[in-house]
From TrEMBL:
It comes from the Eukaryota. Its EC number is 3.5.1.3. The keyword Hydrolase applies. GO terms for cellular component: mitochondrion. The keyword Transport does not apply. Keywords: Hydrolase. This is omega-amidase.
Length: 279
C-alpha cells in the first residue's frame, strides 16, 4: 500500500479518424509514464466523435476490439494502470458507453457502462438524447490500485449523488469521471458538480474531458480538473489539449474525514442509500 498515487489526466483532441484517436491516446499514456504517473485516465469517447449517429460505426466488442488491444498493450508496456476513458461498446444488439480499466500487466480489471443516459432538452441551447442509440449500464463500479479504492462514473452519472455515495460507502477515496460536458452545462455545472461530490463524500474527484473542437457537432467544454477532499480545485486545464498531473494523498482523505466526521454522523435511522444490485 502507498500513501500517495501520482495520476495523469489526458485532455486530447478527438476527430473522425479512429486509428488516429487511439494513437493520440496511446502517445499520451507513454508521455504520462515519462513524467512519473502511476495511473492515467483518458476522456469520454476518446476514440470516437461524441454523437448518437457515430456510436454504432465506432463501436467494438469489449475486450476484443482494437481499442482495448491498444490500451492493454500500453498499460503493459508502461507498467501503469490505465483508465480507458470511454468508448462505444457493442454487446449483442445493444450499444453502451463504456469505460475499461487495465492493470500494469495489461489485464482488464474493471469496466463501467454509463448508468445514466444523457437525455436533456434546454430550449434554444441544446437537445441531446443518448437513449436514441445507447443502453444504460446497471452496476456500481469500483476497483483497487496500489491500495487506493477508486470508483468510476461517466459524465451524466456525476449528477446522481446516490451513485457516488455508494462508491464512497464501498471505500473509495478517489472518483474518476470521464466526461464531455457541453458549452451550455459546462460553464454552469462542471466545476460545481465535481466540487460538490468531493465535498459531500470527502474524497478526490477527477473530471476528464476531451479538448474543445469548435467545429465538432458536439462541442466539449474541456477544463479537465482534479479536486481534493476539501473541495479545492488542485489543478485544471483550459479548453486545449494537455495532460494534467496530480497526487491522490490518502492521508488527506483520512484527515478530512476525521476532522469533519460526517460519515459517522449520518442518521441511518432516518435515511440510507442502498446498492440494489447487491441485494
Amino acid at each position: 500500500m502507498i500513501r500517495a498515487l501520482k495520476v495523469a489526466l489526458v485532455q486530447m483532441s478527438v476527430g473522425f479518424d479512429k486509428k488516429k484517436n487511439i494513437q493520440v491516446a496511446v502517445n499520451a499514456i507513454y508521455e504520462a509514464k515519462k513524467n512519473g504517473a502511476q495511473l492515467v485516465a483518458l476522456p469520454e469517447c476518446f476514440n470516437s466523435p461524441y454523437g448518437t449517429k457515430y456510436f454504432d460505426e465506432y463501436s467494438e466488442r469489449v475486450p476484443a476490439g482494437e481499442t482495448c488491444a491498444a490500451l492493454s498493450k500500453a498499460a503493459a508496456d508502461t507498467g501503469m494502470c490505465v483508465v480507458g476513458g470511454t468508448m462505444p461498446e457493442k454487446c449483442d444488439s445493444r450499444l453502451y458507453n463504456t469505460c475499461t480499466v487495465w492493470d500494469p500487466k495489461g489485464t482488464m480489471i474493471a469496466s463501467h457502462r454509463k448508468a445514466h443516459l444523457f437525455d436533456i432538452d434546454i430550449p434554444g441551447k441544446i437537445t441531446f438524447r443518448e437513449s436514441e442509440s445507447l443502453s444504460a449500464g446497471n452496476k456500481i463500479t469500483t476497483f483497487s490500485y496500489c491500495g487506493v479504492k477508486i470508483g468510476i462514473g461517466i459524465c451524466y452519472d456525476i449528477r446522481f449523488v446516490e451513485m457516488a455515495t455508494l462508491m464512497a460507502k464501498e471505500g473509495c477515496s478517489f472518483l474518476i469521471y470521464p466526461a464531455a460536458f457541453n458549452m451550455t452545462t459546462g460553464p454552469k455545472h462542471w466545476e460545481l458538480l465535481g466540487r460538490a461530490r468531493a465535498n459531500d463524500l470527502q474524497l478526490y474527484v477527477a473530471l476528464v474531458s476531451p479538448a474543445r473542437d469548435p467545429k465538432a457537432d458536439y462541442v466539449a467544454w474541456g477544463h479537465t480538473m482534479l479536486i481534493d477532499p476539501w473541495a479545492k480545485v488542485e489543478a485544471s486545464l483550459d479548453e486545449k489539449p494537455g495532460l494534467l498531473y496530480g497526487t491522490i494523498d490518502t492521508k488527506v482523505v483520512q484527515d478530512v474525514r476525521s476532522q469533519i466526521p460526517i460519515r459517522m454522523q449520518r442518521r441511518t435511522d432516518m435515511y440510507e442509500t442502498v446498492n440494489k444490485t447487491k441485494s
